Amino acid sequence: MQKKINRVIISGGGTGGHIFPAIAIANQIKLENPDVAILFVGAEGKMEMEKVPKAGYEIVALPIVGLQRKLTLKNLALPFKLLKSLSLARKIVKKFKPEVVIGVGGYASGPLLKMATSLKVPCLIQEQNSFPGKTNKLLSKSVQKICVAYDDLEKFFPKEKIHLTGNPVRLEVVQIENKKDEALSFFGLQNNLPVVLLIGGSLGAKTLNDSMENGLQELNDKNIQLIWQCGGYYSKALQEKYKDKLPKGIILTDFIQRMDLAYAAADVVISRAGAISVSELCLIKKPLILVPSPNVAEDHQTKNAMALVSKEAAILVKDSEARTQLIPQVIELLNDKAKCEQLAQNIAQLGKPNATKDIVALLYDLVK
Question: Domain span at residue 23?
Answer without folding.
Answer: 7-167+353-366
